[in-house]
Design a protein that fits this description.
Protein name: Protein Smg homolog
Low-confidence stretches: 153-157
Pfam family, one: DUF494
Number of strands: 0
Family: Belongs to the Smg family.
Structural class: mainly alpha
InterPro entries: Smg
Distance between the termini: 30 Å
Oligomer: single chain
Largest sheet: none
Shape: globular
Number of domains: 1
Length: 157
C-alpha cells in the first residue's frame, strides 16, 4: 500500500499534476501501473481518511505539548511504530516540524496503514502527506520535504 501512496503522491500531488477525480479511472491507471487491486483500494481509502483530517476538529482538543510533556504510546502503537520511528516523531516535534496535533494525525495515519513493519522512510512519507493535507502547515511541509530528501537525518545512536 505504501508503494501506491508514494506513487500517487509523487505523480499527482507533489508534481502539481491534476488529480483525476474519477476514482474508477484512477483505480484502472493504478492497476495498469502494476499495483495489486487490494493495495489500490486500501491506499484510496487511506487517502480519503487523510483528506478528512482537514475537516476533523478532534485534534484541536489535543493538549499543546511543552518541553516537559511526553507522549505515551499504547501497546498497539508500540507494536506498530518501532523505537527509531517514535524517536523520529519526537525529533520532528522538537524541531517544530510537528505540533502535538499533527503528531497525532501522523500516528493515526501510520496505524491505519496496517503494515507489519514501518520503515523510517515510510514514516517520513506519511508525515509529508499529512502535512501536505493540513492547512497552515506549509513551512513544516517544506522542512519535512528537505528532511525526506536528505539522507541520514534525524536520530543518531
Amino acid at each position: 500500500m505504501m508503494d501506491v501512496l508514494m506513487y500517487l503522491f509523487e505523480t499527482y500531488i507533489h508534481s502539481d499534476v491534476e488529480l483525476s477525480v474519477d476514482q474508477e479511472k484512477l483505480e484502472d491507471e493504478l492497476l495498469k501501473a502494476g499495483f495489486h487491486q487490494d493495495a489500490v483500494y486500501k491506499a484510496l481509502d487511506w487517502l480519503e481518511d487523510l483528506a478528512r483530517l482537514q475537516e476533523d476538529d478532534s485534534y484541536t482538543h489535543v493538549e499543546q505539548s511543552t518541553s516537559t510533556s511526553m507522549r505515551v504510546y499504547t501497546q498497539q502503537e508500540i507494536d506498530g511504530i518501532d523505537t527509531d520511528c517514535r524517536g523520529f516523531l519526537l525529533f520532528l516535534e522538537q524541531i517544530k516540524v510537528l505540533t502535538s496535533e499533527t503528531r497525532e494525525m501522523v500516528i493515526e495515519q501510520v496505524m491505519a496503514l496496517e503494515t507489519e513493519e514501518l520503515s523510517l522512510d515510510d514514516l517520513k512519507w506519511v508525515v509529508l502527506m499529512v502535512l501536505f493535507n493540513v492547512p497552515g502547515q506549509e513551512s513544516a511541509y517544506t522542512q519535512m520535504e528537505e528532511l525526506l530528501y536528505t539522507a541520514d537525518v534525524g536520530i543518531t545512536h
